[in-house]
Write a structure and sequence with these properties.
single chain; mainly beta; 7-stranded mixed beta sheet; 5-stranded antiparallel beta sheet; globular
Length: 365
Amino acid sequence: MVVMIITNTPFKEQVIIVGKEMVLAEQCKPYVRKGCSSFPYILHKAFNTCAYQKVFLFALCSQLFINCVSNNNEIERIDLIELASAFKQKEDVHVDLSYLIEEEIEYVKLKTPDSLIINENYLQIYVDENDIILIGFRQIYLFERKGGNFIREISCFGKGPGEYSFTAHNNSYDYSRKLILAGQWDWKKYFEYNLDGQVISNLDFTCLHLGSFSDHIVHAIDDVYVAFYNNWPNNNQLRLNLVDNDCNILKTYYHFTIIKEEPKSIVSGLSIFYKFQNELMFYEKFCDTIYHVSRNCLSARFVIDMGKYALPYEKQFDPDFFMGGESSRYFYIKNLQESKNYIFITFSHDNYWFWQAVYDKKTKK
């Protein structure tokens, strides 16, 4: 089991137009380079692609030089991850795990009791200095970091005091505070547990417009949380709220378009949140941009170009699109993670559920 140490660069406020998305409202101010198009980035292409089937490494070398301004007033660079181009050029290649992991690899076998059955739906594994936290669908388990011995279950699914209704799809554990977030039966209320299984916080977000389990909360930084909203017609185009633990709304961001038709089904898991050096990153499925979420700004960091494989945005609430098999022609991104050197992308395509893609941030390969 490898613990990766990762770094991140702070962002200032900006306005960004990336791919097919436009960041709206008061998110940022535009930066346009002199002598360039008014569209606030310049695209430079330099392809050098290698890939391997099922688990394929791809070179995605286009770079977007745009309006992210760091604390040093230097222009930050946004990379265009050309997933569609790399997928077309894939070939059978074997990649040694040591190529992706520079540190020593340690294997830890989790010693589960016979009565414990792990639900792999939305399975999350977090590795801390002394603990391994495993979070599945309505399951939270704690193991020893070194020996893999089972320590305890953290609360449980139920309606008793301190028991939860659901576990979040991702970003359920906060490394900095060592707290686990889980939802109560009231969709606008959450518990935070410590690793001893005690309820540390009883969070009430009734100030928000949360409508169902598909709209949910994750922790961002310090006392700030982020609420994600599906693009329901009655959500007034709300996308994200930044809110503190007293339910004071700090920032509001909106979906870049409106879906006017009433949804035919309730869809969960349309957002992906992950932490990169304790900074929150956000990606919305059926879109193309990975953002950094700070207290004051929503900043684009990577754009995933899926070309003809991009999911039609208006189809996200259409069950016939999924059940009829039409969706299998497209890339459906299931998970994202990031280390110091790589972006890890899990997606499904053509009835194969787990393609794994790795983007090298340093070499752009």
